[in-house]
Amino acid sequence: MPRHETHAEAGLAAERGARWDGLLVNARLATLDGAEGYGDGIAGAPGTGLSPAGALGWRDGRIAFAGPAAALPARPDELAIEVIDAGGDLVTPGLVDCHTHLVFAGDRAAEFEQRLGGASYEEIARAGGGIVSTVRATRNASEDELLAQSLPRARALLADGVTTLEVKSGYGLDFASERRMLRVARRLGDALGIDVRTTFLGAHALPPESAGDAEGYIDAVCGWLPRLHAEGLVDAVDAFCERIGFSDDQTRRVFEAARALGLPVKLHADQLSDGGGAALVAAFGGLSADHVEHTSPAGVRAMAAAGTVAVLLPGAFHVLRETTLPPIDAFRAHGVPMAVATDCNPGTSPLLSLRQAMQLACTHFRLTPAEALRGATVHAARALGLDDRGRLRAGLRADFVRWRVREPAALCYWLGGDLVHSVFAGGRRMA
Questions:
Q1: pLDDT given for residue 17 in this prediction
Q2: Average pLDDT, the chain
Q3: How many domains does the chain have?
Q4: How many CB atoms lie within 10 A of CB 320?
Q5: For 338-353, what is the mean pLDDT?
Q6: Same domain, 45 and 170
Q7: Which residues of 248-280 are buried (b: 16+ CB within 10 A; e: fewer)?
Q8: Residue 46 above 80 pLDDT?
Q9: pLDDT over 80 (residue 5)
Q10: What are the Cα distances from residue 198, in Å, to 207, 217, 239, 297?
């Protein structure tokens, strides 16, 4: 963890002319910098940490001060080059979308109609739709075309408060197309000025040319990984462990290839059935198990022991009209951190708002607004292996959002709407 700047050091720095780049005053800070609730109890409502007269200062892309304005070491104009009156608005850490499939070509609106007519996700997939239909469109798109189609989706997430974004491959399913997807994900970060984390999901589905040869395809995936990693295109490795995906043994082979390269793993686990995926990824010390609607008590215990985050994806739950809830009470009882993400994808979660995912997590899964906000900040950052964001604390990245609301619960209360006043990533205003 970075060393924190003390109030005394901040005052000395100001005296020496090393003023902060910016300072928000008159803000209602939800620091998220405590074990629960909205902060660490520095001021405001008991037990929430919400500071009704808070200040947030930053310099060189890092937070220099986060706390009650009364604790500032000098006058605001002496401390910072730019002083912004937040007018009592809520300020939170930047949101972290830790599970997306945002880079793809085409759409699957027709499948939405099919599901409304009674077809199941599995029936559509087995009939040649689902993931494989997006693979066809993505393979036929050039890198620039993929970027042009994906950039508006990323911009929509940013405009609604996301400052860190995970993007998976998995719609290419051959080396050239998977590489192209990961390159586009990196270019998204460069284009938007935010941190985009890339996840290799070669083991997402069996491509048509490998029909009947899942073992051979997994051999190929394990062979592609070192080449993609050598190009700096892979931050983590994922797989789809499910009856219409890949088996435990095949998933284990992918994870072993990742471990040989020192790459962290995560898993699409127990979405459609209890296949033991959560326990499997926990056995590899995985960052997260995602979906987890059917995860067993043994899987929950394994996740708790390994420190594996449960990534809840209520968008897919909503679109697929699922009825089996993730074991939320068991996660709470065992202290398993619960993240919330959009799962933005063309088939089962065409969702372009992490705040809407938070709302769905409250409505469908009965998370509290505080749990949902922590799930989209603190725990989502943990699900990406990042400990320098997701909270407002001196020394961490200056990723934060000023909202046009006063209470954190309002972020989960409103269905849609434009609640963002401004978004800062690394101390720079992005939206």
A1: 55
A2: 92
A3: 2
A4: 17
A5: 96
A6: no
A7: eebbbbbbebbeeeebbbbbbbbbbebbbbbbb
A8: no
A9: no
A10: 21, 21, 14, 30
